[in-house]
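Worked Example 4.2. Consider the chain below.
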Amino acid sequence: MTDKREAAEQLATLSPDVSITIAGRDVTMREPTWLESIEFESALAPVIEALREKTRGDAAADRFVQAIMEIMSEHRETLLRMIAFCAGVDRQWMEDLSDSDGRTLMMVFWRVNRSFFFRRLSLARALAPKPASSVGGTSVRH
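Applying the procedure from the previous section yields the following structure tokens:
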């Protein structure tokens, strides 16, 4: 039984698709494949940078949710395009959703695609210039 549970957990990690009914429509939210993600890379660069800036040194879950809400507002068009793509729905359908259904769709999107964004966030943090620090009056770069 443990082997089946472990296999299911591994599959969920590799393929985190979630099926849900929103506004009477069955929707399957998925993470883009590597090849599909290339289509979004340049458009998502400012989103990843905003995520890096807004979550710098603050891993609190409530701060992360607030950061996502701010980023959704700041980068609305890019993220709505990606949500529609990942959910296989058209933009008009999304525009007609109630606030509750729209938020549900958005939260399912972030749940399914968190690894997609965390991989890019981790890379952005690793590649970000390190701030200069002062040691004994001398500026030192790390």
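Strands lie at 18-22, 25-29, 133-135, 138-140. The chain is about 65% helix and 10% strand. Compare this with Example 4.1 before moving on.
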